[in-house]
């Protein structure tokens, strides 16, 4: 059994991933973490999840778990906690899944440094479908000429804190890399009297409304035709299942920085 510790266990994604782990036949949940200010700290999971029989208490301290108590750490929390988890994974030499989004360049650099000593999967979106979209968008951006403008539109529930989403940022990065341009060509939002697009610009736009689980669309548009590539998640189960695959993948892997394309062998 692979022993898993989940950071952000009471969040939208963390709780679903934890429940997938509990339901699996080859993984076991050994603990859950939340920020010290969270009102679930100290409570047992059976008090939080409807129908759950787990008596694991939610902790606020990563140092309560020593190296011998877990095999893989999963983080769906906030950026600062993701970095703390990476530092812990580096110290222990154990696997880490970072599903937290909204990471700055500094935070990503810290995670990359930690991956020299531990296998770390950084996955802004863990669904199979979205990672297929990454592959399709890369191919289209490489093969279509500059006559096709590219715009990325993402939509999520009204409570999502970061914008644009980590997935939209990854899509923009993929397009920029495929076209051989730098991040200065990525433009987030468009407004005002100087809103005309620059040649080669990659537009990114965010929508926050209601209970949308996640929708990402990539428009490739010339003066005479349009190609649309999109992915819609109907349930967070799409992400939770992918995260569990990532746990199995990262366990026992050599140190390094991995992504979901590695996990899914795409």
Full CATH superfamily name of the largest domain? NAD(P)-binding Rossmann-like Domain
- N to C succession of SSEs: EHEHEEHEHEHEHEEEEHEH
Strand percentage: 15-25%
Decide which structural class fits the backbone. Answer: alpha/beta
**Major β-sheet strand ordering:** 3-2-1-4-5-6-12
Examine the coordinates and then state which fold CATH places here, giving the name of the CATH topology of the largest domain.
Rossmann fold
CATH architectural name of the largest domain: 3-Layer(aba) Sandwich
Q: Please state the overall shape, judged from the principal axes of the Cα atoms.
A: elongated
* Proportion of residues in helical segments: 25-40%
Mean pLDDT: 92
- Strands, total number: 12
What oligomeric state is this? single chain
Separation of termini?
26 Å
Report the biggest beta sheet as strand number plus sense, adding barrel if it closes.
7 strands, parallel
Q: State the CATH class of the largest domain.
A: Alpha Beta
Number of domains: 2
Poorly predicted runs of 5 or more residues: none
Number of helices: 8
- Cα-based radius of gyration, to the nearest Å: 19 Å
Supply the key terms.
alpha/beta; Rossmann fold; Dihydrodipicolinate Reductase, domain 2; 8 helices; 12 strands; 24% strand
How is the topology of this model organized?
Layout: E1 2-7, H1 12-23, E2 27-33, H2 45-48, E3 58-59, E4 72-75, H3 79-92, E5 95-98, H4 105-114, E6 119-122, H5 128-143, E7 149-156, H6 166-179, E8 186-188, E9 202-208, E10 214-221, E11 226-233, H7 237-250, E12 256-258, H8 260-264
Parallel strand pairs: 1-2, 1-4, 2-3, 4-5, 5-6, 6-12, 7-9, 8-9
Antiparallel strand pairs: 7-10, 10-11
């Amino acid at each position: 059994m692979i022993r898993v510790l989940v950071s952000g266990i009471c969040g939208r994604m963390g709780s679903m991933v934890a429940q997938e782990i509990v339901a699996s036949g080859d993984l076991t949940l050994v603990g859950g973490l939340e920020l010290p200010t969270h009102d679930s700290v100290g409570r047992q999971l059976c008090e939080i999840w409807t129908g759950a029989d787990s008596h694991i208490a939610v902790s606020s301290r990563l140092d309560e778990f020593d190296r011998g108590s877990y095999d893989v750490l999963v983080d769906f929390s906030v950026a600062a906690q993701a970095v703390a988890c990476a530092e812990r994974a580096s110290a222990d030499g154990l696997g880490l899944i970072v599903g937290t989004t909204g990471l700055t360049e500094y935070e990503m650099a810290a995670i990359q440094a930690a991956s020299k000593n531990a296998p770390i999967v950084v996955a802004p979106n863990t669904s199979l479908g979205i990672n297929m979209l990454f592959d399709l968008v890369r191919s289209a951006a490489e093969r279509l000429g500059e006559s096709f403008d590219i715009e990325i539109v993402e939509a999520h529930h009204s409570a999502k804190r970061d914008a644009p989403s980590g997935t939209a940022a990854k899509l923009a990065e993929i397009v920029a890399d495929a076209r051989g341009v730098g991040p200065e060509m990525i433009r987030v939002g468009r407004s005002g009297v100087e809103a005309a697009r620059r040649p080669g610009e990659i537009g990114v736009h965010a929508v926050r409304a209601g209970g949308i689980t996640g929708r990402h669309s990539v428009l490739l548009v010339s003066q005479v035709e349009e190609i649309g590539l999109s992915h819609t998640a109907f349930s967070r189960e799409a992400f939770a299942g992918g995260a569990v695959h990532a746990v199995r993948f990262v366990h026992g892997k050599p140190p390094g920085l991995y992504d979901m394309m590695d996990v899914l062998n795409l």
